[in-house]
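user: can you give me the structure for this one chain? tokens are fine.
assistant: on it. calling the predictor now.
[tool input]
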Amino acid sequence: MNFFQLEVFLQVVEHESFTKAGDRIGLTQSGVSHNITALETELGVTLLKRDRKGITLTTAGEQVIPHMRAIAANLAHIEQKIAAVNGMEIGKITIGSFPSFTARFIPLLFSAFKEKYPNIDLLIHEGGYEEILKWVEEGTVDVGFAAKPVKNVEFIHLLTDPLSAVVYEGHPLSERTVINLEDFVDEPFIMLRSGCETLIEDRFLEAKLKPNISYDIKDNQTVLSMVAGKLGITIMPDLALPEKPERIKSLPLNPELSREIGLVMKSSKDLSPVAKEFSKVVQDHFIG
């Protein structure tokens, strides 16, 4: 087994495609297949299942991939250390983020980092909180942005994001200064299923109230469009709201509700040199 075969294997697993993996590392599909076959032959096990549904890990593949990712991470650490000794900065960082954070902060953070380290590649995987935490634990991403609660990862608090009631213009509640939880009970409620639903559901449970959920939607923009279309009202994080809302109005909740957003990683001590620098840039931006 050599390091290139390892990289080919990890790219196939990440992209779930021989063609996409080949495009990423400059190989034809047959070249990717040859390297995977050679790796499997040398190890004496089948690592990947190939069928009409796509490419998935075998049981053996699931058992060895954490170790392969660790080998690849250690090799990247070595390359970065040597580059630093030689006065160069090289490498890449893979970051996990959720949509509302990506839209509001990732361009600023990436630009600030690129000013200091123009030769470092920044890659982003976007998903929900659970996906991001899984990616961090598995080593698919170096660091991620997620909201509490979290477990099995290190969490560095960055900001508190309030949640607000969102109603359409002309709604009877739109003239209120605050919205109480009781006000939602008799209204069609659009539940945003992008990660904050647990916070919202727990708050209703604490108040012994039950929202009249008419729709369960994962996409922020779809929820906003449905509210604007007078299909219901909702509760959303302020980060997910447009800076210039049209046909909708956001109002504070009573009692207040918010999510705690932070930088997550397996361990700050084990981050690669460039990932540590990215962490510093992030903390400088939010914490100072």
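assistant: here you go. The chain has nine helices and twelve strands. Residues 160-257 form a domain with the D-Maltodextrin-Binding Protein; domain 2 fold (CATH 3.40.190.10).
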